[in-house]
Amino acid sequence: MVQNVRRCLLTKMLLAFLFIALTGEEAFSARIIPTVKSFEKTDYKAGRQNWDIAKDKDGIIYFANTDGLLCNIFGEWTLHQLEKGGNVRAIHAENDTVWVGGIEEFGYFFKRDNGALVYSKLGDLDGEIVWKVIAYENQIIYQTYLGLIIYDKATKKVKRNTYTEEFWTITEWEGELWAIATGGIIGVIRDNRFYHREAFTEQVAEVRQVFIHDKRLFIVTFNDVFVYDKNTLTKLKLDAKFKNVQFFTGCSLNKSTLLLGTVTSGLISIDYKTGDYTSISTAEGLLDNTVLSLKTVEDKGVWLGLDYGIAKVEFKKTIYPIFAKGATYHIKDIGNKTYLSTNKGAFISENDQAFQFIEGSAGQVWRIRAVNKVLYMCHNEGAYKIINRKLQPVFEETGVMDIARFGQSDYYLLSAYHGVLLVKYTQGKFQFISNLNVWGNPKLHYDAQADCIWGDTKKKPLVQFQLKNDKVNIRLHENMERFFETRAGLVFYNGMILMAYEPDANVFSKIQQAPFSHVAEKGIAALDIAENNGAVAYIANDEIKLFVTLPDGTVHSYEKFISSVKYDLIKADPFLNLYNNELRIATDRGVVVFNLEYQSSAIQEKPVITSVNIGSKGMHKKLFFPFKDSTINLMKGRYDLQLQFASPYSDYEFTEFRYKLEPYDKEWTEWKSKINKKEYTGISGGEYQFLLQTRVNQSIIKQTSLNINVSRHWFQNKWILIPGIITIFLIFAYVAFLIIRAIKEKAHLSKLAYEKRLKQEAVESKNEQLIQFLEIISHKNSFLQDIKTILAGMRNSEACRCVKKIDAELNNEKKKFLYHKLFSENSRELVIRVSKDYPALTDNDIRILTLIRTNMSSREIAAILNISNRSFDTSRYRIRKKLGLNHDEDLNSFIRNL
């Protein structure tokens, strides 16, 4: 039943995951292969030889180079020359000072607040070479073959001490100044005397270096390494391989490991307790096999000064190789042993020691399988049992790529070069039964629950083999593509999702439980799931995917970090697995390991802003880490800034950066892994903060910052801005006042224009009424005048009386008053203006003016005024004179334009 299958899977997933805490030097496994990064002269732009190395409190690395003092600030190289520009042979870094000794002079470099190194010469050398510089008590000691040059830091004076002996080298050991004399004498220098303590019992070659390891003094000579504990002097027992090796330098890496630099054999790492060693030479990436100097970086790695170039060797990192001797196809863990199947043969590692070749296995080893406690090797020449690292052939007819057994029977399937073969195990050999004619060299797996063997040819259909008596029935599952053997159990894949098989119903169903349900992607070629559901890893379309469930329940992806490994995958048949909190990936070079636990616990350091390049109007200066002042203060002006930054972690870690300059930038940049510098142009007065964040291996985010203060011009000062703001406010208020007043004036003018228009319309209306009234009066007067003329001709008293009444009507004063009132109200402004401008005009003149403006004819006006035309012409003449008109000016036009 499906439920039974799922219950089985869940039971396996509930098994506790055995986490191995890797701390201190215990993090080193003997099979971890160090990684090497080399630097050419063209990389650091200085001389080829590097005689000594020092590290200061800020993590900056210094090299005694043939061209001067070479400085590495987390990947950024700078060269500082002595006064005479000569060779530097020995250096010592202490606080902000680097003490240097060369061939022609000696002195020191002091680190200013801006990070720049400034040289001060203490003296010249006449035919001498400084081979060692150390700090002892309150002194700096420069050691030459002829004696010691001592600089007293309190008095700032230099003195030279000479001795009857000549010294190979000196060192401080447990509070005393020890020296090795050229005669093979070990002793202490005290009170300007050399006190003998021990002598070499045999002829000793030149002593090149001494160092302290595990509270003992190690003396490196050209031919041997000696160990002195203040009581006895013994020779270090080295592997016979190093019998003819010449040594040049040495140092201590950690409590159990010491490092030796050789003349022609590169670097040798020796576990002092076990005697195990690792050799690193040009074959592993060094540019030169002559190691002149060494300087460890905690216990993570070591810098090498070479006769040609520089190298950095790293032992600790999140992702690292554990095997690099051939393309690896399969990894098998059995107890405390790990087996590798490679194109060079089979290899074994026991108790995490270095991988050893299994004799007789040379060739293509495709898989190593454990079948019922028996270990089989699938080889291009057949199948072999592995018994105590010895090989016993069990099938030699053709090459075998995989093997599986039908339960407890004697029948097996071999995925061979010539097809899938059914064989029977008898008398210590596999006896051929039949060829099942299934091709494609399928991967095989026995499923105890379904009592069958599954065959995975990397494409559809999935093949199912079932044994019936001594014959095999073959069933093809057209919709299924692959199966995967995971730590959480056997799962099937239909080309998109993971499924479980129900043998009773012969059906496949989707697995709903996490993390199986999280995997839904085409093209999956390899997959593993941790027993505790903590991690899911798979390869799909040549991309490596890794999802880890963090303690807070969130799922984190490390896809980008491990993406660089994808180029080394064996694309035809990739392999990976999860084991002991590690992801192991088989590559065409060997095996690399991604340590999940180290990833989450070791990434703690902040990023480093290594330098700031400042330019302004032809001026350029460069400031360096560690920037003693938390703020870089710049004068008034506009500046172009270039900030360079780095991560203190290994180049092999996947490091991403993002940054912003507040308040210049509003948002963070996107995460970028290839960018380590940023430029800003035209930065003017203000206070800025450059924020830099790193995310190592897509894990914990760490941040650092640098303040930059550019002095403001007077017009940029915020206090100066207050009067300006007030002035702008007042100007704005005044402009607003003008605008409001203009709006009000416009409204007032609009109102006046509206009122004037209404008044004009009223005037025009009245004018029309007046004209109509005047026409009526004119007709009436004309009619009365006609009647008067008729009556006057009758000459009787009654007629005379009627004539008088008509005259009275025509000259009625009320009618004149009405004319005046109507015309004066209708032409009030005209009347006022004309009366003011022309005071000589009478009321009758003004009446005539208003009547002339109505465009009536002279005859009509005369009729209205009940005067003759001649009298009207006379009135017009008087008015012209009073108005002061010339003879050629038209009175009517003048009046209408008033």
UniProtKB/TrEMBL annotation:
GO molecular function, one term: DNA binding
Domain HTH luxR-type: 834-898
Biological processes per GO annotation: regulation of DNA-templated transcription
UniProt KW Thylakoid keyword: no
Protein keywords: DNA-binding, Membrane, Signal, Transmembrane, Transmembrane helix
Signal peptide: 1-23
Lineage: superkingdom: Bacteria
InterPro entries, alphabetized: Ig-like_fold, Sig_transdc_resp-reg_C-effctor, Tscrpt_reg_LuxR_C, WD40/YVTN_repeat-like_dom_sf, WH-like_DNA-bd_sf, Y_Y_Y
Membrane-spanning parts: 719-740
Name listed for the protein in its UniProt record: DNA-binding transcriptional regulator, CsgD family
Organism: Saccharicrinis carchari
